[in-house]
């Protein structure tokens, strides 16, 4: 992993940029915006993807695989993620040439260029909350520029250039880069300690969020319910703090949440109450909506139109996304990769599955998180899923750690009959099909490449007899 060096100078002008890891949701969004600015764009990724093909159609030069030859002679700036190795040949050559080599967060800083910035931060819910804000603002006839961590379903993109001065971003706390931006309004969805491989301690994690909030120019919008957010709130010195959640003293209060289908709820602010319903399930999305509405109020919009605008949000890609139905079994995918996120995703699924069962296919993400939280993963999976198919760890930027595999999680289940560790993907797909029956939901969980198993699962369902009990 390459840790971002935020002290490196950001070029004033960029004419040709090369993106190492251009296929990622965040990087592809940045590359798209560079193209929209008239900048020549090239890039590489380790595997082909729809994102690469879309960028190529827009005029980018893309390469599958990392090779020094991919770095054109005209490139003046190289943008990279923290997920590449220092030995990456394109990264090494860029350094040798003396090019500007900047982290993706610095590229985003360059794009923002001093506009009025809404930064959405938090351990969970960032992508959904950012998507809610962007679609709501557009519905309210505001045309913001935005960069999200995932594709917004009704827009089909993760980024876009707007005509108004407002800029909305998903701000990443994992490596501290959310502290780089000159934020006007800070939205903190929650502060559930994560990425301790970077921060070291929970106290350092909380302190970073407090600094992020206190440095906001205009306002802080923060959860009233989340335990970590409350700890951060104790450290706030900001003159304008707006809270949201189910707490009785929340500035924007959520109440009467009903989850038996698309979630409905009430939002109360300054004595006025508005009924709301989202087209997506889950109590957590009612809370996300409250945070988005609180930001809209802070931007000067009234409660009723703000709620109606947020109601139009149709979700983001890889958040409880239906990929297909085979033999009466629905196969979904969700980006959840932390125990809290897994619990929220599965709890939302429970509200709409009816009499069916939930079969989770979990791919643990990174060795450090798995080693730190394997008991918590086992607990929430055993509590919320009827059965779990456990894959092996997706290491991402990390080297393997002896003894840290998917079996570490499966071995922590109280009842071993509720979990099956299958490191081979085809065997995992076949096993899933053998136990699934009509009305069940199969949900892949993880922020690695677990979604790639979905075609195998659908194929296995199509050729495997229904499980006993249908």
Task: Summarize the structure in words.
This protein has 470 residues and is an alpha/beta fold. It is 34% helix and 23% strand. The chain is built from 15 helices and 21 strands. The protein has a 10-stranded mixed β-sheet with strand order 8-7-9-6-10-11-12-13-14-15, sandwiched between helices. A 6-stranded mixed β-sheet has the order 16-17-21-18-19-20, sandwiched between helices. Strands 3-2-1-4-5 form a 5-stranded parallel β-sheet, sandwiched between helices. Helix 1 runs parallel beside helix 4 and helix 14 crosses helix 15 (454-463).
Key terms for this structure?
six-stranded mixed beta sheet; 15 helices; 23% strand; 34% helix; ten-stranded mixed beta sheet; globular; alpha/beta; 21 strands; 470 residues
Task: Give a summary of the structure in a few sentences.
This protein is of the alpha/beta class. Helices cover 34% and strands 23% of the residues.
């Amino acid at each position: 992993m390459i840790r971002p060096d935020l002290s490196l100078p950001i070029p004033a002008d960029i004419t040709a940029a090369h993106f190492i890891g251009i296929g990622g949701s965040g990087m592809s969004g940045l590359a798209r915006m560079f193209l929209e600015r008239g900048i020549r764009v090239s890039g590489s990724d380790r595997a082909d993807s729809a994102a690469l093909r879309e960028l190529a159609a827009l005029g980018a030069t893309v390469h599958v695989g990392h090779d020094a030859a991919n770095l054109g002679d005209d490139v003046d700036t190289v943008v990279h993620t923290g997920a590449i190795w220092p030995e990456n040949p394109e990264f090494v050559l860029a350094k040798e040439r003396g090019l500007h080599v900047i982290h993706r967060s610095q590229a985003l800083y360059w794009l923002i260029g001093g506009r009025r910035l809404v930064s959405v931060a938090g351990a969970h819910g960032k992508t959904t909350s950012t998507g809610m804000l962007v679609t709501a603002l557009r519905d309210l006839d505001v045309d913001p520029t935005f960069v999200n961590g995932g594709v917004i379903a009704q827009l089909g993109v993760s980024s876009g250039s707007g005509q108004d001065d407002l800029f909305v971003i998903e701000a990443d706390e994992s490596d501290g880069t959310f502290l780089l931006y000159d934020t006007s309004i800070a939205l903190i969805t929650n502060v559930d300690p994560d990425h301790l491989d970077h921060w070291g301690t929970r106290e350092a994690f909380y302190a970073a969020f407090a600094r992020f909030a206190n440095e906001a120019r205009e306002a802080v919008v923060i959860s009233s319910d989340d335990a970590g957010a409350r700890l951060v709130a104790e450290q706030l010195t900001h003159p304008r703090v707006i809270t949201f959640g189910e707490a009785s003293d929340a500035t924007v209060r959520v109440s009467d949440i009903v989850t038996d289908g698309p979630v409905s709820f009430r939002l109360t602010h300054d004595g006025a109450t508005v009924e709301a319903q989202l087209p997506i399930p889950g109590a957590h999305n009612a809370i996300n909506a409250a945070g988005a509405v609180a930001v809209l109020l802070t931007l000067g919009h009234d409660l009723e139109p703000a709620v109606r605008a947020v109601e139009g949000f149709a979700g983001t890609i890889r958040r409880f996304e239906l990929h297909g139905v085979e033999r009466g079994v629905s196969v979904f995918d969700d980006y959840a990769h932390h125990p809290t996120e897994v619990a929220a995703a599965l709890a939302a699924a429970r509200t709409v599955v009816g009499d069916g069962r939930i079969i989770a296919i979990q791919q643990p993400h990174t060795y450090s998180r798995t080693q730190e939280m394997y008991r918590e993963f086992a607990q929430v999976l055993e509590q919320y899923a009827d059965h779990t198919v456990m894959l092996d760890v997706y290491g991402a930027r990390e080297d393997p750690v002896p003894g840290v595999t998917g079996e570490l999680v499966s071995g922590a289940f109280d009842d071993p009959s509720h979990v099956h560790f299958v490191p081979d993907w085809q065997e995992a797909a076949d096993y899933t099909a053998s136990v699934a029956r009509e009305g069940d939901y199969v949900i892949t969980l993880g922020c690695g490449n677990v979604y790639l198993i979905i075609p195998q699962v659908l194929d296995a369902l199509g050729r495997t007899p229904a499980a006993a009990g249908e």
